[in-house]
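**Reference record**
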Amino acid sequence: MLCFVYASLRKPDSYLWLPQRDDFSALPESLVLLLGELRFVLEVHLDPQRHLPNEDAAMVLEHLRTQGWHLQLPPQETLATANHLVYQRSAPDARER
């Protein structure tokens, strides 16, 4: 699968993987706000056997297929749950409380 990687200018060492270049339509608003401005850094052909230094290629591919994006954070970050579908839910509207 051809993948496109973007670096967050707001969060150092944080990268967003997408299956289509410049298509940010699948991103939840909360993730867009977290990452801020993005800079394109890499186009790469990814398959499950490819070795990546900080990520599991099979997991990246699974996230790209199921949710349309993958977030790569520095190892010490605790926001790894951002790659789960639950993260896509927006906060409850104040009117619903």
